Amino acid sequence: MVRKACGLLVVLFLWAANAMAQSSGLVDEWPAGRVYLANGDSVSGKITYHRSEDMIRVNRPDGSVVAYSPIAVRGFEALDNDGRYRRVFVTQRWNLGNDYSDFLAPAFFEQIVIGNYGLLKRETMTRRDMSRDAMYRGGYYPYGGYGRYPVGGPMYVDQRLDNFFILLPNGKVKELRNVKKDLEVIYGKKNSQMKQYVKQNKLKYTSLPDLAKIVSYLGAISQPEVKTTSVD
């Protein structure tokens, strides 16, 4: 009886998580991947990532389904249909965006750059008022005294938003709320060298490939010096 109850509870949990994540639009599915568990084991199969709940579900080849939260996972990798594109996610502890709290909870981050400084990413959902974009403007009328909207009022659409984080050499995760400003603070003594690198290579902080180059270069020039001794 206890086993049946537990089994039903797991099914209900998976169903509820799937329903909530589908409604939020923050669900990613890959036909193949591997999850590396905290206990040293690994599980392979089709991976579904419910970003809003920070939970992954694995459909194993034998037909069974298992679900994991970040506390049970070291990381996971997901492959596209032909296996040529791989995305890597790792579990890191962070303050959930509360800089005034010492509480750190495990969470999934997509790993963009590995190095002395790491670049991580999480995705959230935001609502955007498309009626304020020029391409959607037609007939207007004053709306609520603030700005002007097309006839029919504002039109909101849900869009994914990339949130970037830096994995510092001490292992702490820092959110980049203002990417350029926050990174320039992190540069520290390398500030002038980093600014020169960004300018010479015409890099933009708003471009993910450029941002990856910036963080990679910061890590490269921040490597600790290795002292060597020569033997005559």
Structure description:
With 232 residues, the protein is of the alpha+beta class. The protein has a domain at 1-112: SH3 type barrels. It is built from 4 helices and 14 strands. An 8-stranded antiparallel beta sheet has the order 3-2-7-8-9-10-13-14, with helices on one face. Strand 11 and strand 12 (148-150) form a beta hairpin. The model is unreliable at 1-24, 139-147 and 228-232 (pLDDT under 50).
Features:
single chain; about 230 residues; alpha+beta; SH3 type barrels; eight-stranded antiparallel sheet; four-stranded antiparallel sheet; 14 strands; about 35% strand; disordered N terminus; disordered C terminus
Q: What would you say about this model in short?
A:
The protein is of the alpha+beta class and 232 residues long. The chain has a domain of 112 residues: SH3 type barrels (Roll).
CATH architecture classification of the domain at 1-112: Roll
Q: Could you name the CATH class of the domain at 1-112?
A: Mainly Beta
Largest sheet: 8 strands, antiparallel
* Rg (C-alpha, Å): 22 Å
Mean pLDDT: 82
Structural class: alpha+beta
Calculate the terminal CA-CA distance, rounded to whole Å: 77 Å
User: Beta-strand percentage?
Assistant: 35-45%
Global morphology? globular
In DSSP terms, counting alpha (H) and pi (I) runs of 4 or more, how many helices? 4
Could you tell me the CATH topology label of the domain at 1-112.
SH3 type barrels
Topology of this structure?
Elements lengths: L1 H23 L2 E4 L1 E6 L4 E3 L1 E5 L4 E5 L5 E4 L4 E7 L6 E9 L10 E9 L4 E12 L10 E3 L5 E3 L5 E12 L5 E3 L3 H9 L3 H10 L7 H14 L11
Antiparallel strand pairs: 1-4, 2-3, 2-7, 4-5, 5-6, 7-8, 8-9, 9-10, 10-13, 11-12, 13-14
